[in-house]
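Data card: per-record layout.
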Amino acid sequence: MAIKSIPPIQENLGKTLVDVVDAFRIKSLDVPKVFEIIVQNEYQSELFLEHQTHIIEHWYNSDPMDDYVYEANEKSSLKVGIICYSCSFPEIPNNLAISYTKIDEMIEGIHIEDWFLNYMALEGWTNEKKNDVLNSSDYGSGMLYYNLFRTFDVVLVTPKSKHEKLRYGSIQRITSVMKSGVPALVEAKGAAFELFVTRYGYPCVFAEEGGNYPTLAQALTDMKNVSMRQTCIEEGLFIAENFSPDYIVKKLLRALSYEGDFDC
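The structure for this 264-residue chain is written out next.
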């Protein structure tokens, strides 16, 4: 299997899969017909109509393997956060009693370990504790994100702003927030994100212009309701199981022509 690249044809390798991921420069004409393509969604499949394609999404970015349970409870003010690279950062009206933290990874850096303590030192995190998690074979950087998400009552998830990302991009950040056990409030913007929330009927959604979805102000007002946040948690954890390493690896094995049973 090749990732973001096109290898030469080698008959001794058998079936060859090319995982396009976000290498949008790869076009159908560039890829030998005998290769099969891994894409993120149906829209990306349409770019490779002359190839066999397999929709194999990214799994969430770590498996917490802990006993954390977020308990939604009454609060006079919600802590809302957004952590993203190259995304839109929506503004929240001042009259909503919201504490809002925006973390722009284009400014902070793409490696969470470089800026994690800027936000987590007051939560009791030290450099030693951070490095223990980062270097753990069980956790890694994904667990740092989970602990950051868990400092908020709600995490906003907006898509990356480039056109290709809006239509063909990964929904990994959505499923990672869901798996963390924190309510994810997802912006239904772009074909990829809207396909996701529609397919799973996820109720915790907003859109800048409203339309078929609540505006951000309306959605955050709804999120002050304990039962709404609890619904987001339960629905999110249920949806996230479709993006577990176990589930995604099985999809990959099927794409590689494995036809046996899975005794795991």
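Known properties of this structure: The first strand starts at residue 2 and ends at 3. The chain has a mean pLDDT of 92.

See the next section for split statistics.
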